[in-house]
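User: I'll paste a sequence; please echo it back and then give the predicted structure.

Assistant: Echoing your sequence first, then the prediction.
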Amino acid sequence: MLLDATFDYTWDDANDSKPSKSHYYVNEENFLNEARPKNWQSPVDYRNGVVHVRTEVFQKPAGDQKVGWTLCYIANEGEYGCTGSKYYESTGVFENEQKMTDFWQNETIEWDKGIKQMDLVYTINDSGSGHVHYFPELKDKTTPTRVRITLVQVSAGSRYDPSILDAAGGTSGAGGSPSGGADQGGGVASGGAAGTVGTLGGAGGMSGGGSGALLNAGAGGTVPSSGGSSLSGASGAPAAGMASSAGSVSTTPAVALEPKGDAGCAMSRLASRSSWNALCVAFAGLALARRTRRFRPR
């Protein structure tokens, strides 16, 4: 998660922003992730990955005036380069991705030195003359507005995991999302409803580079599984207490789970006591969450 910025923007903001008009500046004083990599090429290759842009528009004047945001990476060394949001005409959620090697002036940034700031520019089109302050006649069609803009950097060979956008805290917590692909830290199991253990895995995550695994048993009395490989690594052998079906999603009848070491529960017979079943699965999730910390990238 490079940035997660929720802010209001008015016509006065567009005309008063300094040093450049129509800008909203994101740095470590507000929404820029302080834990962003200093080197975007190694040991994790974000430079040749993609950026996933999500724009959630809470407020925008009525009408069909199209607007969007140009998103500029300001380098510690070198010049700057800009990607952009999807252009939109209404409130709602708009998402797009772009390769980090495709956007304007991306090659002028010294990616091994990192970036220090992001400039978000409110525009009516993607030309250099599209900044809203150039169009006073559009004042009431473009402002005021309220948006949430998130940029997730997805490393080369990985894929975007939307679980990083946790409604409660903006990210999936201190450990980040289970996916090892985006800038998420390869985190632990997310919480869930009563008797539910959240998801584990994701491309290149705890599965040691495989397609991940899913454990989500509880309230519904079923144990769905997905993804193939498990905590055991590239071999794909399921860890104890985890159902696995390579590359597919399946549903298994509820089973009684009994404790079996610190790995979780053994699936042995049909459940007759759903409360014990849910409690045991919850404890399994805690044990697995502890274990995943050993696999968390530094």
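The chain has two domains: 3-154, 159-298. The mean pLDDT is 70.
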